[in-house]
Amino acid sequence: MARRLPTIRDVAAQAGVSVGTASKALNNQGRISTETRSAVLRAAEELRFAPNALIRSLQRGRTGTVGLLTWPVRETGILSVDLALLTGVSHGLAAVQTDMLLYARCPGRELTTILLDGRVDGAILVPHELDEATLGSLASAGLPTVALYQAEVPQGMGYVKVDNGSGMRQAVAHLVARGHKRIAYYSPLSSADFRERCAGYKEACRELGASTRVELCVTPADYHAPLLPTWESWCALDEPPTALIVGNDGFAMKWLEFLETQQVSVPQQLSLVGFDDAPIASTGVGLTTVRQPGLQVGELAAAFVDRLIQGAPADECRRTLPVELVVRGTTGPPSLEGRR
């Protein structure tokens, strides 16, 4: 026979107090002596009594849960850097005694339907492609929300992002210092992050004296676009690129595999720089990449959404974090003979 779960009446009876007194002691409410409170807590521990979380949330008007909206695994390419982000959010919410409910966004499901059904007190938004109308709907509903990796958010919403412009400048400066002048760039423009990185690349090339030839900057429609047409167009230039910067480490790994099929040596014939510093970047020869602090982004997002839930102004819950270039084995000086 299954063991009957203890109730608050059992706790009250064992502590020798009324049900009302036991409830106040467990919820740290009312004027109750230290001796009585200790007796109730001791009885609850001995009986292994756990208050019904749903009932308590209804009484308090809060669920004690924050929703983390992320992307479907199959669409992300390399997820390793996101594990640091998820760990940071988890640690940050645990620090404020808040649970995390993970949502993987599915096509056809309205974001407002997912997050505004009363199951969460606030939300952290990871997907990069959230449009202005969707963000506006969440802001209008008054749900405390922190968006990640984008600063263009409605009034009342917080954000945590990284300094993409600085990351691109560091990457271009490193390559220019090694002697590169023809630096290509490859990444879609499907997110605020990618758009900032592309703009940062162009600005850094102008300021640091690298080529600003438009053919060197390629922005494919998505992650799955074939690389061969881009590569052939670069090779057909009178002065092909000697270095390549890509929008994230997923693209970098894809390019490394492709270049191997073309018998192009990295970095002897082409230097390569990524962005993220996913764990895979430190394997093999080691990818030179821009490191973003995923763990810190997650922890700060958790702290900000908690502050928004407590009523803090959104302006106090917005932050841009610094990044740093990590130099490894995929960058070097340009080949004296070129790639042909």
Describe the structure.
There is one protein chain. This protein is an alpha/beta fold and 340 residues long. The chain folds into three domains: 8-51, no CATH class; 65-162 and 294-322, Response regulator (Rossmann fold); 164-291, Response regulator (Rossmann fold, 3-Layer(aba) Sandwich). 40% of the residues lie in helices and 15% in strands. The chain contains twelve helices and twelve strands. It has helices at 8-15, 19-26, 34-47, 53-60, 80-95, 111-115, 132-141, 164-177, 192-208, 228-235, 249-261, 294-309; strands spanning 65-70, 99-104, 122-125, 145-148, 158-162, 183-186, 217-218, 243-246, 271-276, 288-291, 318-321, 324-326. The strands form two sheets. The protein has a six-stranded parallel beta sheet, with helices on one face. Strands 7-6-8-9-10-12 form a six-stranded mixed beta sheet, with helices on both faces. InterPro entries: HTH_LacI (IPR000843), LacI/GalR-like_sensor (IPR046335), Lambda_DNA-bd_dom_sf (IPR010982), Peripla_BP_I (IPR028082). Pfam families: LacI (PF00356), Peripla_BP_3 (PF13377). Keywords: DNA-binding, Transcription, Transcription regulation. Residues 6-60 form the HTH lacI-type domain.
